[in-house]
Amino acid sequence: MSENDIALMGHLMRRAGFGATREELEARAAKGYEATVEELLNPEEASVDYLDLQRYHGWTWKPGTVQGMGAAEWMHSLINSKRPLEEKMTLFWHQVFATGVSKVDHYDELNDQIILFREKGMGNYKKLLLAMAQDPAMLYWLDNNENHKDAVNENWGRELLELFSMGVGNYTEVDVRECSRAFTGWTITPKLARFPMGRFDWFFEYRDEDHDDTEKTFLGETGNFDGEDIIDIVCRQPATAEFIARHLYNFFVADEPQVPAWAVTPPNDQDAIELLADTLLESDYDIRATLRVLFNSDFFKNARFARLKSPTEVVVGTLRLVGGAEFPAPGLGDLSRQPCYMGQDLLNPPSVEGWHTGAEWINSGSLMRRVNFTADLVGDTQRPGIQDMIRRLKERGATTPEQLVDGCLDLLGPLEVADESRKELVGFVSESGDVAWDTGENIAAATGRVGELLQLIVSLREYQYA
Amino acid sequence: MTQSNKDPVVVVLQMTGGNDYLNTVIPYSNPLYRDNRPVVGVPEGRVLPIDDKIAFHPEMGPIKSLYDQGNVAVIHGVGYANSPRSHFRSMDIWHTCEPDKLGTEGWLGRATREIDPNKENVLTTVSFGPSLFRALALPGVPVACVDDLDNYGLLPGITESQQRSRILDRFARLYSPVMGSSAVMDYMGQTGLDTLEGADILKEAPRKYSSTVEYPDTTIAAKLKGISQIHQAGFGTRILYCDHGSFDSHSNQTGMHDKLWKDVSEAVECFFDDLREHDMSDNVVMLLFTEFGRRTHDNGSGTDHGAGGAAFVIGDPVKGGQYSEMPSLEAKDLEQGDVVPNHDFRGIYSVLLEDWMGLDAKPLVGGSFEKLPFLG
User: Fold this and answer.
1) In the sheet that B55-56 helps form, which strands lie side by side, from edge to edge?
2) Has this prediction a pTM greater than 0.90?
3) Do B142 and A148 touch (CB under 8 A)?
C-alpha cells in the first residue's frame, strides 16, 4: 500500500466521516478506495448503543428543554458511530434544514429530526423533503402550524423555495403565496403548553377542514395542489437539482460562496455541479447514487484540504483522533457545547439559513477557541490516540527534529503544510535538540516533546482545513 | 492615528429577524392600523404615546424615557427599493450597501479601514458575539470577535509560562504571511496575529471596570455590558457591534415581541446609565436597525416578511424626535401588502459616518443619500 493510498483514504474519511485513526486508515486502504466508498454508502456495522448512553446519562432520553445540553446524544453518536458517512449526513442535512431550539424549545423533537436525517439522509431527496414538510420540529420552526385556510402564513412556503429547493430568484411572490396555501392544514398535535408538565411528544396532523383545497397556480402549473404536489413540481425544476448539488459540493468537496449568493455567483466548478445535478435528476433524487458519483470523481479526489473544517468537524475529528471520549463520561453535555463556542451551536443555528461556512467560520474569537480546544486535547499524551502516535514514532525510530515533525504531520492526517510552516516546526523542536527512546526517563521527555509539537501543529492554519 | 477617549464612537445593535415596525412605532390613532391588525394590534390602552399619532410599544418604557430626555431619534420608513423579503439577502444589503449585486465588503469594515488605515489598533472595531457580522468584514481589516471577555486569550491550557511563551512566539511566526498562499490563509494569518495582540489588552477590560448599574440577566444586557466595559477601558475602540433576536414574529407575536422589546429597552437603559455614571456617554451614539419591517396586515397570529421599517439612533449627542414620516397605510399605497420605504438606510449610515465619525460617507456607502439632521 502506497503513501498516496493512505493520504487519499485520509481525505475520504475526513470528508465522508470525521477522520479516522491510522489503524483504520490502513485497514480501509487495504480494502481499496471504491470498496470503502460502497461500505460507507451501505454500512453494515451496528449503530451506537443508545441504551448504554442512557444508563449513564438518563437525562439524554427526552432532554425536553434542558438548557443548552440537548445535543449530547448526537455528540455521542458523532464521536462513536461506526457508520461515519451516515452520521456525516446528519450534519449535512442539519446545516441545510437548519432548525433551532431557540424557537422550537423542545430538544426531543430536534433529536427526532436528527434521527430522521440518519434514517433517510442517504435515501431519496423528495421523500426527505416530504418528511421535513411533516416533521413536527420543522412545522413549528417555520410556523406551518399557524398556516390556515383563512389566514395564510408564508414562512414554511417561502423557505421551502428559497432554502430547501430552488433558491432565490427562481420563483415569484405569487408562487410563495400559492405554495403556502397548498400546505394549509399541515400542522402538529398536541400543542400543549410546556408548563407545568414538561414537553409532550408532537405529531404531524393533517386537518382537512383547515386545508385550502381550491385551485392554485404555482410555477406555471394550475390545479388543486396540496403540499405533496408542490414538492413534486419543485423537484421537477432543474434549479432544485442544481441547488442540492451545490450544497453537496460545498459540504463535501470545496468551499463555495454563501447560499444567498448562489442566485448571482456561479459555482466554482460548473462541470462538477452539472454532473451532480444530472445524477440527481436521472436517479430521481437518489442521494446515495449522487454521493457515489461524488466520492469517486476526480474533482473530489483532487480537493484535498480545499475546504475549512466546520466547528463540529474540528471537535469531533480531533476527539476521534486522540481517542478517550468514546465512553459517555461526565462532561458529555459540555463536550456537546464545544462546537457552539467555535460558532456552531448544534441544534440551534442562528437562523433557518443555517451557518455561513468556509472562511466565515473564522474570526478572532472562533479561531482562538479552535486552537485552545484542540491544543488541550493533543497535549494530553495519556489519550489512547496520542499513545498510539508515540508508539509509532518510537517504532519508526524518529529522533531528530525533522523526523519528529514529519512523523507527527503524517500521523495527524497525513497533514500537508507549507514549507515555511514545516521549517518553523523543525525550528521549534530543534530548540531542545534530538529525542531518545531508550530509557524510561528519555521516553517520558520525548513524550512531552511530542505533545508540545502536536499542540503547535493543531494551532496551525493548515489544521483548520479538511 | 491619534486617539483620545473622546473620539466619536458608534455602537450598533442589530435586531435580527425583521422587527415589526408598526408594532414598535405604533400609529395608534390611525383606524387603518386597527383594521390591519385584528389579532396582533396593540390595544390603545397599552401604548406609550409620543404624540397624538404615534406611540411606542408598551415594553419600550425605558426608551421612551430616553426619548423624553431628547436623546432618541426615531427614523420612519427606512429601507430600500424592491425589498426581497428574504432575511438573508436583505441583511446582506444592509451590511454591504449593495442592493443590486452581491457585496462582500461591510460598510463598517470600510469605515474601520478609514479610521485606522495602518492597522495600529487591533481593537478599533469589536464585534460582541460569536460571529463576525458581514457589516464588519473586509479583507485585511482586523476585527476582534469577543463572546467572553474574562476568557479571551490563546492557549490558556498551557500553564507553564516559559513553555507557553515559546509556543506563542512560534505561533506568531507560523501565522506570519506565507509567500504565494491563498487569500483565506492570509486572512487566517492576520486573524491569528490580531487575536494574539488583542487578547492581552482585552482581558484588562473587566478588571478595570466597576459600576453601580446592575444589568438584568439577559443575553442582550450581557453584550451591552461587555461593550460598555470595552468603551470605558479606553482602548481606542471606535465601532462596537452586537445583535439580538430573533424578531421573526410569524406567529404568537404578542408575547414574543413584548419580551424582545422589554429585554432590549432595559439593556439600552442600563448601558446609557452606566456610561453616564462614568462620564463616558457624550461621545457614543447607538444605532438600532433591522433588515425589514413586516407585512401591514397580520396573518392571524403574527406577521410575515415585509419592507419598510423603523430605525433608532440613541445617545446624548443625538437631537431627539421623529424623522422622515410614517408611510401611508392606505391599501392603494401599499406594495405587495407592505408599507413602502421612504428613507434609504444608507442615508442614516451617511449621517453617522460623516456628521459623527468625520469620514467621507460617499465611498463607504456607495453614493449620496438624503441625510436627516438627527445629529444636529
Assistant:
1) B25-26, B55-56, B48-49
2) no
3) no
